[in-house]
Amino acid sequence: MRVPREQEETLDIYYMYEKERHTSEIAAFHLNRILGFNTVPPVAGRLFSMTEEIYPLLTEDIQEHFFYSPVDNVCFFGQCDYFCDAANSVCGVGEMLEGSVAAFLPDRDLANWKSIANPWKRSYSKYNRSEWETTDDPEGYCEGVRLKPPFDQDRAILNVIDSAIFDFLIGNKDRHHYYTFVSYGNNSYYLLFDNGKGFGRPHDDIIDILAPLYQCCLIRFTTFRTLVQMHTDPERRLSHLMRESLSHDALPEILTPAHLRALDRRVRIVLEQVLKCLKTRGRHQSIIIDDGYYYERG
Ligand SMILES: Nc1ncnc2c1ncn2[C@@H]1O[C@H](COP(=O)(O)OP(=O)(O)OP(=O)(O)O)[C@@H](O)[C@H]1O
Ligand SMILES: [Mn+2]
Prior knowledge:
Blueprint: H1 22-34, E1 43-49, H2 50-54, H3 60-63, E2 66-68, E3 74-76, E4 90-91, E5 96-102, E6 113-117, H4 131-134, H5 138-145, H6 154-170, E7 177-181, H7 211-216, E8 219-220, H8 221-232, H9 238-246, H10 257-281, E9 288-289
Parallel strand pairs: 8-9
Antiparallel strand pairs: 1-5, 2-3, 3-4, 6-7
Helix pairs in contact: 1-9, 6-10, 8-10, 9-10
Bound molecules: adenosine-5'-triphosphate and manganese (II) ion.
């Protein structure tokens, strides 16, 4: 835990400098399961004893980064490119710290996975933007992506669009790569770990995370159906399903009411984008694709 739940991310920050939230990792896992994707390794919240459970595991150079804050809470900082200094420490309440833990993926000797760069990745520069952001031919950008493997497969491009919808719902701009198990080939699902940069601003919807959806005008049928159900059936409202699901986590109030409300609003926005496609590009069979991907709701 680096950021208190109620602290919103400022607008004056590039996404690469946003701080990860343990609550985002936890909520993302629950959301992914509720959407029926089942592509985020299980993540749970818990309290850690910083002195008994974290300190002994660290190398000496990082143990040296432990100290007591002026009000006697235990603090430390790690080693990384951004915000890894005493001014940006992680502090517990006393010596107890909230955090999230993820199920560890099988060893790569057993089940190797590889990364696929996200064609709609954002630029890491403060001065330039990516081609998909600046193109005056957004449909053409998608067509270009779909010419090259693995995105020449329907399954692969629909996975990217599912992932974009997922990232839009959590508000994550930092999906630079997707991961797949090598032995499943190119036509497999995408593992979505690294979900800490979501749920930063409950009153903002970052529409361009949906660029793959509205530039390609494609959505997987099962995903569309799930979103319609969430929008129309009060019992399946996403905020309701999420509140129920998150109540099973060991930590309290993973998402504040404003974040839960944001989820319902964003479901509607995704459907509005699909509606726009249906109005401008016609033929629903070429927009809502039934690729035989069947899932059981988590
Ligand atoms: N559940 C997991 N099981 C095994 N390995 C994992 C798991 N989650 C993440 N990893 C490994 O740890 C690496 C870093 O994790 P993660 O991507 O969440 O952190 P990050 O600091 O945001 O990385 P990046 O700079 O690539 O965005 C991953 O690239 C992956 O190799
Ligand atoms: Mn990351």
